[in-house]
């Protein structure tokens, strides 16, 4: 298994959280879009996953402003969901 595949597998596993709403936002993105992210975007995604579930949910739903380092990846996730016809 190459490193990219291993990183992708880890990202999918870490996307499974304690909140169903968060799982519905993160898991499909990690399964479908993670491999297409640049290395820096993948690093941002991985770093973002270190945040508390409630914080992540607020960022992804647009209730709170993401930290400066997470702004771009949060926007990318939100845009991906909209492109799939999903509401946030």
Topology:
Layout: H1 3-14, H2 20-32, H3 39-48, H4 53-61, H5 71-83
Helix pairs in contact: 1-2
Describe the structure.
The structure is a single chain. Helix content is 65%, strand content 0%. The mean pLDDT is 88. By secondary structure, the chain is an all-alpha fold.
The number of domains: 1
- Contiguous low-pLDDT stretches (5 residues minimum) are none
Class based on secondary structure composition and strand pairing: mainly alpha
Task: Say what the CATH topology is.
Answer: DNA polymerase, domain 1
What share of the residues does DSSP label as strand, in percent? under 5%
Mean pLDDT: 88
- The count of DSSP E runs of length 2 or more, i.e. the number of strands, is 0
Order of helices and strands: HHHHH
- CATH H level, superfamily name: Flavinator of succinate dehydrogenase
Give the CATH level 1 class: Mainly Alpha
CATH level-two architecture: Orthogonal Bundle
> What characterizes the major β-sheet?
none
Termini distance?
A: 34 Å
Shape by Cα distribution:
globular
Rg, Cα atoms, Å: 12 Å
Number of discrete helical segments: 5
The percent range for helix content is: 55-70%
Summarize the structure.
The chain is mainly alpha-helical and 88 residues long. The protein has 5 helices and no strands. The protein has one domain: Flavinator of succinate dehydrogenase (DNA polymerase, domain 1).
